[in-house]
Design a protein that fits this description.
A hairpin with a 2-residue loop joins strand 11 and strand 12. This protein is an alpha+beta fold. About 35% of the residues lie in helices and about 20% in strands. The protein contains 23 helices and 24 strands. It has five domains: about 80 residues, Roll (Ubiquitin-like (UB roll)); about 70 residues, Roll (Ubiquitin-like (UB roll)); about 110 residues, Phosphorylase Kinase, domain 1 (2-Layer Sandwich); about 180 residues, Transferase(Phosphotransferase), domain 1, CATH 1.10.510; about 140 residues, KEN domain (de novo design (two linked rop proteins)), CATH 1.20.1440.180. The model has no long low-confidence stretch (mean pLDDT about 90).
Length: about 600
Amino acid sequence: MEEYGLHEGAVVTVDWSVTVLVTFGEKSCSYILRSSYSVGQLKELLAVDTGLHRFEQHLGFYGTVLSDEKMLSEYLTPETEDKMSITLTCQPWKVLVLLPSGTLKDYKISPNTKVAFLKSQIEEHENIPVARQILQIDQNDLADDGLLCESMIPSNSILYLKEQIALKYSSNWTPVSARWKPCFEELLQVSDGNLKEVNNVCFSTKVDRFKIGFGNKTEVFLGIRHDGREVAVKRFPRSMSQNFKNEKSVLTTLDSPNIIRYLDIAMDDEFLYLILELGEFTLNEFISTDEYKQNQTNISRDLVGQILESLRTLHTGHNVIHMDIKPHNVLLDVSNRAKLSDFGISVVLPDNQSTFYTTAKGTYHWVAKEILDSATGKVKYKKNADIQVAGMLVYYTLTGGIHPFMPNGEADVFLCNKNVQDGKHDLSALDDIVGRHLVDWMLQPDPELRPTIEEALAHPFFWNVDMRYRFLGVLGDEKEVKESWKRQPHSVTLTLDGLTVSVFNTVPHWKDLLDQAVYDEVSKPVRNGYRSTICGLLRFIRNVDVHLKDQPPAIQATVGNPMTYFTAKLPFDELFLRVYKTVRDTRSSADDWTVRGSLKEFFPA
């Protein structure tokens, strides 16, 4: 044995010739093969001679189905000796595809078909566009121009169909945001490996430019919902599940255009997600834009109204204390409408409750005095804490980013907190004295002296010039103002007249600021003319407004529109504010002018 290269224990294979006759319908093929030939090798020969791919061949030998892996010799018996008569039939080939839905579906198709054709069949039956399909076997993508038979070994392998996430969402995407549009275009080009899909929302946490915000352990990402809507995806670690639940609970009760809208939730093994309305800018971002700077006065006034309207939705509509008001938590939509957001630490009070006790919360620089004063242990939160911080935000908005307790832009938290606690605010950067009065009222150190949100929104800062002028005219027609010249005038008119010198400190008589001809003509019916006091001016304004049509044409031409005339000639804002404060200070007194029928429209209850 050794001379033939054999050793003890070696396996010796005896090989011989076998005559194989294969019948296929009316056709037959004859081969002389070695007995060690496999059935699979025989099928390769038959594929050439019959045109049937090996995956479609079904070989039978005396009732036995031949297996590709076995040798011909394994089927021979003493009776058959070295001859095999085999029957070939065509067996339609099936491709098993596991769909994204989890359904296993078979497709009858030729093994010589290209992958692209199978994708077209899937599109026809499953309504999944070819462009969105990824076919995989053993986690390897199949090329569209490859043959199925070359990819699927063994032939009973299962193909896995995945949808390309970006393409799945791009077909429905409805561009709305101008600022984020380029980012969304990039997002829809990102590969599946860098995209995440939860609860029919697509977003990316792996590419930094798609992260648009962050907070205390939370992050916010750009996302697209299955219906094509652009959304913000706020991600919470599971360790913050209570904050997640709290914010969701608050948002679901707040259905208002003044509040960032809650859309849905999602979750995976590591994180919880809030799906929210997408904002275009945060307030602190927006005040840095050219759009804001070029029309700051008008835009900032609108923003302040919208911010306070948002707070009214919370305080009046739903008994909610926000507890974390700051520029980062005010979002602007594509129409530049301001909306409050971030309700992770907010609280919904029962209808009969106005106070909430908890540990101190909020963000540095944006905390009310009473919270700072009680920084240890339980803190008493009321809505007026929101009011003081909203006052800081109002001033910040009107001045393009200046904090009233940090007028020089200091970043020192301790200095800011000390200023808040000491009541040292600086409003000198705001030229609008009516706006300053509103902010000063909201910043009052004593919480009980601050306005409610309803009172803040009723403040004349939000009145237009016409309403302010009309207020002076209505007041000028009050009986006490008409009779202010008497020896025992009313206490309110005494107060008003006492303010004359401070308002008109540059001239001995307010008439010196007007056209002499106008004053002389209007004063003719009045013995000794109009008094130099504020009450005298209020009567003069009222009479010009009512009787101008009876004046000579030259006087009518000089005055033109009385409102425009007086607002241009007089220190109108100073006059108006002093008069307004005097009347408002009568509120809740024995002689409350704010409830008079002629004046109550200016002082809502």
